[in-house]
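Hi everyone, sorry if this is the wrong subforum. Our group has a chain we'd like a structural model of before ordering constructs, and none of us has done structure prediction before. Sequence below.
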Amino acid sequence: MHNLAGAFAGVITAHLMFGLPLLSPSTHARSGGAQLFSEFVATFGLLAVIWGCARHRPSSVAYAVGAYITAAYWFTASTSFANPAVALARSMTNTFSGIRPADVAGFVVVQLAGAFAATLVFQRLIPALRDAPEELLVEHDQGLVSAADLAVDSDQTPGEAVDPRTLSSAGKSWRSGS
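Answer:
Right subforum, don't worry. Here is the predicted structure as tokens:
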């Protein structure tokens, strides 16, 4: 609901800045196979950016999403709505970025399909850390060593089970190569 409110607030803000009516239903046609496929690609790509950044550099997600949406606006035929709330809100702007209210349903369907496809693909390609193997081998000054054999805290002893997500001092040494 917040997403929808934010999208409509954006439309109203833009209209105020340009002296347009607060809301005006769009007459910009966005229908047909090319537009719908383009929106599928835009949504799939957005989720690819989010999954990849969230897994490898979570602090960059917001910047990467902004950069992707800016680029996708130009490289997709649909101008990359990639979000049902955005599609609904953009149906209330009769500018180039708008979409006829009658075309919104098709966009929402392919956005959901793109999100579903991306989720299936990236759950397989980028498994969550919770799905990591129980035994994790790490490079250490003694060669490859089982994470379970590394003493992580003063409370742990070699051979004690170690959750790979909690490798702190041991993780620093093998990641930095020192």
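For your construct planning: The longest strand covers residues 137-140. The radius of gyration is 23 Å.
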